[in-house]
From TrEMBL:
It comes from the Bacteria. GO terms for molecular function: ATP binding; catalytic activity, acting on a protein; lysine-tRNA ligase activity; magnesium ion binding; transferase activity; tRNA binding. Mg(2+) 2 binds at E408. It catalyses: tRNA(Lys) + L-lysine + ATP = L-lysyl-tRNA(Lys) + AMP + diphosphate. Mg(2+) 1 binds at E401, E408. Binds 3 Mg(2+) ions per subunit. Its main location: cytoplasm. Its EC number is 6.1.1.6. GO terms for biological process: lysyl-tRNA aminoacylation. This is Lysine--tRNA ligase.
Amino acid sequence: MIKEEQNLNEMLKIRREKLSKLQQMGKDPFKIEKYDVSHYSTDIKENFDQLQGQQVSIAGRIMSKRIQGKAGFIDIQDQEGRIQSYVRKDRLDEQEYELFVTYDIGDIVGIKGEVFKTQKGEISVKANQVTLLCKSLQILPEKWHGLKDPDLRYRQRYVDLIVNPQVKNTFLIRNKAIKAIREYLDERGFIEVDTPILNTIAGGASARPFITHHNTLDIDMYLRIANELYLKRLIVGGFDKVYEMGRMFRNEGMSIKHNPEYTAIELYQAYADYEEMMKITENIVAYMAQKALGTTKINYQGKEIDLTPPWNRMSMQEAVKKYAGVDFDTIKTDEEALEVAKQKNIEITPGMKRGHVINALFEEYAEKHLVQPTFITHHPVEVSPLAKRNPDDPTITNRFEAFVNTWEIANAFSELNDPIDQRERFMEQLRQRELGDEEAQMLDEDFLNALEVGLPPTGGLGIGVDRVMMLLTDSPSIRDVILFPTMKPIVEE
């Protein structure tokens, strides 16, 4: 191991010496500001018949190099893929070829030359000119230890993208799926808006916020945990269809499906209900899959999942009855519910009521069975402080969560627009905070004022974009679909 490190240090030293020599010769690559690129690798390969014999200009990173005396081959990687270049000494001036021979894997070069096909049938560029555009002073992992350690891959995503082509493909799929979300909503009359990321009240969800401090105002502020309450204010103001996609921040645990900052989309539609939100949810996820993958049937970690609408539906109480064996139609009081919780080994927390028990039993016994897309509906009012009550049963709300692969990927409801009921629910949330629930929601007086001005009947929906991306890209961890996931800093000893 010590010998390997010594060899690596020597290789790094040689690269710096090569750079120094170039600089002494007046050929410092870092002084080059621009290089005109006429074609990318895929352009040349897909249009070879038209480009054969034509002059092109390409640029990219040297990924492999084979020198045989007076000629050599290098593979250039650009943003779209790789292409081979054939470099002969007699086509370059003498000094240019001598320098070319010293270039390392990882260096970035520009090549001007003629498109042709080698005797082995490989489409290539026959170089007339090779220009060093950037000297790489590090060794690419595949040339040394390899880049297999997931932690290192996430920390050095720039290297991960270079040496693992499938990683770049993951983010190209993500890009197509993100575009599909906007396309779907824009075509249906939704308006994309921006709302504050820094908030004086952390509202719109039950979650622990990140706290910061504004020096000029001398007040604590919060990174948003949701954008719900601002978007509803816009519905009050007269925008009938709005959405916002962006980063949310929650100061909570990290896991394969949780990152402290993540991408979510929330949308609100006036004069619509949770049933309409169900249609949008299943259709928008299917549309994302179709646009990004060309199919709505995916394989996730060996499981076949069909995203084609319509999705399954089941109330939360039905799910608890089916998977936990508890029928809450026969359990009406908080005391009875708490006794069931004890029997089912559910942790009893301060202020726990019947609705909390139903939700806890669902999470413990039912979620793990929801592999195929399923809407779980009619959550208890205790765990749904912003949702409208069901008119036939005021103990439940017209809310749903969408589950795929046992994960919640979406949350939606008919929005509570009764300001009196909303105030009572906020007050109950404050009581929960006083009992130690740090995720309980805060009182937002301005939002209550907006409700008093008048919020029309409205349907709202939030989708966890990163979790959907995990499904579409067959990625086992949320870190695989976030370019730069949150990482614990490495502390030098």
